[in-house]
Amino acid sequence: MKPSADRFLDVTHHVCPMTFVKTKLMIGKMSAGEIGEVRLNGGEPLENVPRSVVELGHQIVALNEEAGSPGVWRLLFKVSG
């Protein structure tokens, strides 16, 4: 069972680097232990956003392609303290 997200962000209409800028702004509003979910496109956003979340010290919980939407991914991460 996947954990439910405390916050959700859809960046499928943005391109890098805005995909991570928006994700980082969301993380800044979150508390330690909260789960964030980001809906993003494959390619550059799929490479950069998860890597940048980890570089900030947070934990990836899941990264899966969205059912029924080829090329769209769901990233779940847990904010560290």
Automatic annotation (TrEMBL):
Superkingdom of origin: Bacteria
SUPFAM superfamilies: SirA-like
InterPro entries: TusA-like, TusA-like_sf
Gene3D superfamilies: TusA-like domain (3.30.110.40)
Residue intervals of the UPF0033 domain: 8-78
Name of the protein in its database record: Sulfurtransferase TusA family protein
